[in-house]
Specification:
Strand order of the largest sheet: 4-3-7
Pfam families: MHYT
Keywords: Membrane, Transmembrane, Transmembrane helix
GO cellular component, one term: membrane
Protein name: MHYT domain-containing protein
Order of helices and strands: EHHEEHHEEHHEEHH
Radius of gyration: 29 Å
Strand content: 5-15%
Shape: elongated
Helix content: 55-70%
InterPro entries: MHYT_dom (IPR005330)
Length: about 280
């Protein structure tokens, strides 16, 4: 059995992984707050941005940074295709979960969205694990695998609940900190399920450092783009106020105007109508 070290760079990789998970979760929560106040195509654009932030930065990037600290008695390379698929899966399942819960309140929808997103996050994690190539055979402890998927489902369900209920800077930051703990906890639980038996096969794929520069550039572009979208857009409160104003205007346009009452007849001093001829 090969010796495995999950923290070959000390506390650096888990701290950076946790930080990226918190940043992605924070951006995602802010974007989904905008989605709650939007309508039509705009709503789905905000949800897509939230899925990109949570699934892309908060989950997939966290996974990759944490993997940088993984070390075994072999050179490690990565299958580029499987790694890309894992990123698509991460963003896609989070968007699916957000879409499910955004269509109505209720525990059944929340549970369905959490199961979808959690199972997808687990799939993303293990696709990323199978993307590793080394001179050895990988095996997984089924109990730890099941526990990691359970953690992913619970974490995804809680995260989706946060996207529905949390508002305000302090509450949103606290929720993002909790989501970071859950996501990184799921990752390292899944990593501890892995064991490697030495072999003589030749590792194939790209070295980890080959991903580093594109990863940093991609994270920077995504983060800057999402921050600009948040800063240049109206706040959730302003969006709600605009929506209420538009609804009032639309109601006024569709409601027929009530004709004014006819004027009261004028009377003289003796009480007769001025336009009624005297007898």
């Amino acid at each position: 059995m090969s010796h495995i070290n999950h923290f070959s760079h000390g506390a650096l990789t888990p701290l950076l992984a946790y930080l990226m998970s918190v940043v992605g979760s924070l951006l995602g929560l802010i974007l989904t707050t905008r989605a709650r106040s939007a309508h039509g195509a705009s709503r789905y654009r905000w949800l897509a941005g939230g899925a990109l932030a949570i699934g892309g930065t908060g989950i997939w990037v966290m996974h990759f940074i944490a993997m940088m600290g993984f070390d075994v008695d072999s050179e490690i390379r990565f299958d580029v295709g499987l790694t890309a698929i894992s990123a698509i899966v991460a963003v896609g399942v989070v968007y699916g979960g957000l879409h499910v819960v955004s269509r109505g309140d209720g525990f059944p929808r929340l549970l369905a969205g959490g199961l979808l997103a959690g199972a997808g996050v687990g799939a993303m994690h293990y696709i990323g694990m199978f993307a590793m190539s080394m001179s050895g055979t990988l095996a997984f402890d089924p109990v730890m695998v099941a526990l990691s998927v359970l953690i992913a489902i619970v974490a995804a369900t809680v995260a989706l609940w946060f996207t529905l209920k949390v508002e305000g800077p302090l509450a949103t930051t606290g929720a993002a900190l909790m989501m970071g703990v859950a996501v990184t906890g799921m990752h390292y639980t899944g990593m501890y399920a892995l064991s490697v038996t030495p072999g003589d096969n030749v590792p194939r794929g790209a070295a980890a450092m080959d991903f580093l520069l594109p990863l940093i550039a991609g994270i920077s572009l995504i983060t800057v783009g999402l921050l600009l979208a948040i800063l240049l857009s109206p706040s959730a409160r302003e969006m709600r106020e605009d929506s209420e104003l538009l609804e009032r205007l639309q109601h006024r346009r569709t409601t027929p105007a009530t004709p004014p009452p006819p004027p009261a007849p004028q009377r003289g001093q003796d009480g007769d109508d001025l336009f009624t001829p005297r007898r």
